[in-house]
Structure formats: structure tokens, C-alpha cells
Amino acid sequence: MGKRWIKFIKWLGYSYLMNTRSNEVHDTNNTRRGCRMSTIASKNKKYITQKKFLKLHAEQKVDGCRWCLRKFNKAEQLQSR
Ligand SMILES: [Zn+2]
Fold first, then answer.
1. In sequence order, what DSSP letters do the residues of 1-64 get, joined into one string?
2. Which end of the chain has fewer CB within 10 Å, C or N?
3. CA of 24 to the centre of ligand 1 (A)
4. How far apart are the CA of 75 and the centre of ligand 1, in A?
């Protein structure tokens, strides 16, 4: 996917990137070095909306990245209890 395409779908609200292999989701407006976005293969990338992410997260189908979606990360949530 080209940079202009990514910009366009982000503008449409698809700012969350799901790694379909690990079911981990990143917030593309908040990525950190630790996200290691470059290691995600293109075929495993799926752009979704925040609404979709919140739905999948509520259904426990995905986990938030511990770097850019810390409050949605299972391990981080357990630690902060
Ligand atoms: Zn991340």
C-alpha cells in the first residue's frame, strides 16, 4: 500500500492497524519505536476504525499494543491492578 492510500484511509477514520497474525492493534497516530511497525508483513496489515477496534476489543478478539494502546493492553491492565 502506498503512502497516499494510507493517508486517505486514515482520513476516512481507519487509523487503527491490526496485525492479523497476532491480533494486536496499533494506533497509527500514536506509534512508538517499540511498535516495530516495519516488522509487520503487508499481508498481515488490516486498517480498521476506532469504533471497530473498540468492538473487537470488547469481544476480546484483539489486544491493544502495549506501546501505543497501553490502556487496551491485557498485560498492562493486569499490572496496574
Ligand atoms: Zn503499537
1. --HHHHHHHHHTT--EEEETTTTEEEETTS--GGG-GGGS-GGGEEEE-HHHHHHHHHTTS-EE
2. C
3. 8
4. 14
- At 65, is the pLDDT very low, low, confident or very high (cuts 50, 70, 90)? very high
Ligand 1: distance of its center to the CA of 34 in Å? 7
**Cα of 6 from ligand 1 centre, angstroms:** 16
For the chain, domain boundaries: 3-79
- What's the pLDDT tens digit per position in 2-54? 889 888 888 889 999 999 999 999 999 999 999 999 999 999 999 999 999 99
Distance 47 CA to ligand 1 centre (A): 13
Global confidence as pTM = 0.88
